[in-house]
Amino acid sequence: MKNFDWTQFTRKMHIDAPIQKIYDAWAKPEEIERWFLEKASYFDADEKQLANNKTISEGLRYEWDWYLYDITEKGKILLANQKDHIQFTFAGNCIVDVTLKEFENGTIVTLTHKDIPTDDESKYNIRLGCDGGWSFFLVNLKSVYEGGLDLRNKNPNLKPMLNN
């Protein structure tokens, strides 16, 4: 593990769906709830909540809740260019970059989670834990937008499982 990069990782997934549809999957509360979150809330500087069918923009803050977990992730949208790039804070001061690129009949999603602290807790919970989480949720994004099947476990009697 001497040369292992604890500070960042990148995951890629090809999805047979148009780039705008995949951008919206990340950028609209009602869409990100289809494959990633139980509840996505975004707020402007005046604490006015973004409507569920509207597209996020730079500067909004968010509160995200998942099925079966009693934690709320809070962060900020750093960039949202309305076509192929979204960047947000995550897991404290880490940054997640999501870039989209058209490829043949679909979209390549590239997710980079970076600026991960190197203390033991962050190595375990963020570097390893988020890597597993993002890997699953990218597969779920593909499943939902290619075939409609949501792979998430939502049954509180079945935790912890691979799909929650």
What is the succession of H and E elements?
Answer: EHHEEEEEEH
Helix share, percent: 25-40%
Going by helix content, strand content and strand pairing, the class is alpha+beta
Number of domains: 1
Structure annotation, total helices: 3
The CATH C-level name is: Alpha Beta
Shape: globular
For this structure, what is the CATH homologous superfamily?
START domain
Largest sheet: 7 strands, antiparallel
Q: Give the C-alpha Rg.
A: 16 Å
Q: Please report the total strand number as a whole number.
A: 7
State the distance separating the first and last CA atoms.
27 Å
Strand order of the largest sheet: 1-7-6-5-4-3-2
- Poorly predicted segments: none
The assigned CATH architecture is 2-Layer Sandwich
* Average pLDDT score: 96
SSE topology:
Elements (H helix, E strand, L loop, with lengths): L8 E7 L3 H9 L1 H7 L3 E5 L17 E5 L6 E9 L4 E6 L3 E10 L2 E9 L5 H28 L17
Antiparallel strand pairs: 1-7, 2-3, 3-4, 4-5, 5-6, 6-7
Helix pairs in contact: 1-2
Model description:
It is a single chain. The protein has helices at 19-27, 29-35, 120-147, and strands at residues 9-15, 39-43, 61-65, 72-80, 85-90, 94-103, 106-114. With 164 residues, the chain is an alpha+beta fold. It has one domain (10-147): START domain (Alpha-D-Glucose-1,6-Bisphosphate, Chain A, domain 4, 2-Layer Sandwich). Strands 1-7-6-5-4-3-2 form a seven-stranded antiparallel beta sheet. Strand 6 (94-103) and strand 7 (106-114) form a beta hairpin. The radius of gyration is 16 Å and the shape is globular.
